[in-house]
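ok trying again, last paste got cut off:
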Amino acid sequence: MLLDSGVDIGPVTLGYETYGQLNAQGSNAVLICHALTGDAHVAGYHEGDVKPGWWEHYVGPGKSIDTNKYFVICSNIIGSCMGSCGPASINEQTGQYWGLDFPIVTIADMVRAQRALILHLGINRLLAVVGGSLGGMQALQWVASFPDMMGGVLALATTSRHSPQAIAFNEVARQSIMSDPHWQNGNYYDGKRPDLGLAVARMIGHITYLSDESMHIKFGRELRHGGGFAFNFDTEFQVESYLHHQGHKFVERFDANAFLYVTKAADYFDLDLSRSDSPARQALAATTARFLLISFTSDWLYPTYQSRQLVNVLKELGRDVSFCELTAAWGHDAFLLPHEGLEASIQGFLGGLE
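nice, full thing came through this time. structure:
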């Protein structure tokens, strides 16, 4: 596969899961795109799982994305480490880990790989592409790259271009990894890994996923052990303990180099819709797909104004677009959590595409 960087890479491996059955017409396929450090396991339990897939509340029999009706596909993005090829994969030509020799990938590269999977599964046109956060970027890139391949696009808690603030947070997170003495310029796979740097990177990310209100609700200024201050630098506040816990959990499942690659892909993302001659804008003008964009009131990582900007462009182009801002206290992570309004919106949108 030829990447945006000009590098030709292969073989390309994708980890993916499917749910439900493809109908005889091949017309009921829904592609779900995962967020930054997600995976293909969108719903249900694997043997030994303590928790179900990351969107279990919305995907399954009788749920908003009803697997009795729809054939659901979710694939891990390239550049990641959850079944698809990336820096933590073995380079078949050398027999060694790719590390930083793995080429930089973009959201468009990820979507081209997904399209190859969709065609491999015998699907020529998707009923819908659905995604939140980085998954929403993929959904938007799908219609920008292949405007005739879907009936609808549902993008949640996302943006058409990464803001300077989002890029800044990602850079601080990357620097925390690259400053870890065990990072070794990405060549750590046969030794100690940069767990501390990766844990701090995750802590930074989690702050952006929450909101001021949600932190007050979940933690306040509560101390872990009650009483007064310890007057030292131990972990005292509940919010500190939560961030440390999230960081330690993350290093058990994710690769530090892969985190560098997926955050860089997010930072590069820009549909450049302000230019009338941009390829993405021309693709949006040509598509017949219907759109539903959903934002959340407390999401300050991808705030509502960024969704509205995209809605305004789609209206200017005469596209069929709906928009909904849902009230939620939980910040950017709200799209992952149960919400009656989100359930109804997803179900209604997909039902209208049938």
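cool. The chain has two domains: 16-163+270-353, 166-263. The chain has ten helices and eleven strands.
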